[in-house]
Amino acid sequence: MEINNNTFKILKDLVALDTTSRNSNLPVIEYIENYLDEYHIDSRRVWYEENNKANLHAIIGPPEKHGLALSAHTDVVPVDGQNWTSDPWILTQRENKLFGRGTADMKGFIAGTLAMIPEFSAANLVKPLHLIFSPDEEIGCLGIIPLIDNLIGSPNKPDYVIVGEPTSLQIVLSHKEHFTFRCTVTGIENHSSLAPEAVNAVEYASRLITKITEIARRKADSGPYDSEFHIPYTTLHTGLVRGGTAVNIVPKHANFEFEIRAIPRENSKAIIEEIHDFANNRLVPEMKSVYKNASIELDLISNTPGLDTSPTEMIVSEIKNLTTGIGSNAYGKVSYATEAGLFQKAGFPTVICGPGSIEQAHGPDEYITIDQLNLLEQFLSRINTYLQERSMP
How many domains is the chain partitioned into structurally? Predict the structure, then answer.
């Protein structure tokens, strides 16, 4: 199976740049800037963290006509503790698959898009193509926020946005809203032989975790449901727990992090209020009866709005025409969160459509198939023709 040589080279270069979210994404931003400069395409940075992490925005074609945006995040998840069969930072081909961190999520989309720049830049576009590259998507879709805020008030903004997350080039119209919370429990330590006279932070944290688990089971058992999602109900999950120093010391501190992934019809506010109520009105009074300075603090780390695009919106029919024969004809819904919800919340009609599968993302031996990259090339070629021949509404 052959692949566009330019796509392969760019993807190889991108994979070699370790843009794990804990690192700066500037190496990728600089790479893209230099690449665009070769075709005399101006770009601008919108900083998320000054001199460390930035968004990049470029416009090909007449900027005053708005047009269509292709959006991708530049950060990747860690490889720590994963058992890879090849170096995750060296693009490795085995038959039809290209292995490396970020190949599916989502440097494959970036590479394919950049490989098409010669065609886009040479075309006489009626409406422009916007290119958007962001940092820190993997830790809560935080990095894109300054750029979206900037676009809202800009005269040069897109009419539509395609977020190129891996969907096997199926059009995805909806994803769940995502919340991440950190809970900090403070008790009072003591020798474990005097445990009843102390406030065990780990035990109170575990009781709140149990409450969160009970809510998760209730949602699974009673809904509400949306059968178009793979997991058709709202989920809650505790992912990190820390606490204690020794088995014979009643722990003073404990903290944990949990998430909520809510389907669009869910009353997520009611879920959050239920958790707060159990912590503040059930657990904290018990704790304070022993130690007046005991506390439970719940802090929102991130909140990514859900995406809920109607099949009747103009963007859906327009993009469906461009993916006919390339991706699935059925519209999809996904449980993972993306920057698409933030674009839609800001007023930009948005869909998700990109190469590769989410099943290959984040794990060891992440890969994208050459087939998917070739289909992406067809999709982008159609977008190029579309922007030349038709005036978007």
Answer: 2
